[in-house]
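Lecture notes, part 5. Sequence design as translation. It can be helpful to think of inverse folding as translation between two languages: the language of shapes and the language of residues. The source text, in structure tokens, appears below.
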């Protein structure tokens, strides 16, 4: 992927970053903040890499969405992100972020 994109599309915030990592932290934070501000769930596309910085930003966004009583994500989580979140213990048996653990 040559471009980093984050844009509203079909009632969701499309986040197309090659990695949810410290190297993309500023773009990821801006994308998640925009989605939170606009009340849109985030859909991730083409995520190849995830690190602790990315996981922390995603969990903070999910926590803010849970506090607002709305859905954080549209569609399934990318496999690298799902695996990283599973290591945190924040996923429920349906492989979704457990809202109870966020509060």
């Amino acid at each position: 992927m040559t471009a980093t994109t984050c844009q509203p599309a079909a009632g969701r915030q499309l986040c197309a970053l090659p990695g949810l990592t410290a190297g993309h932290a500023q773009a990821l934070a801006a994308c998640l903040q925009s989605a939170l501000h606009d009340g849109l769930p985030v859909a991730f596309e083409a995520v190849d890499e995830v690190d602790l910085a990315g996981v922390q930003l995603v969990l903070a966004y999910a926590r803010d969405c849970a506090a607002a009583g709305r859905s954080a994500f549209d569609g399934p989580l990318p496999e690298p992100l799902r695996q990283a979140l599973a290591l945190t213990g924040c996923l429920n048996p349906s492989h979704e972020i457990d809202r109870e653990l966020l509060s």
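The translated text above is only one of many valid answers, since several sequences can fold into similar shapes. The longest helix spans residues 52-68.
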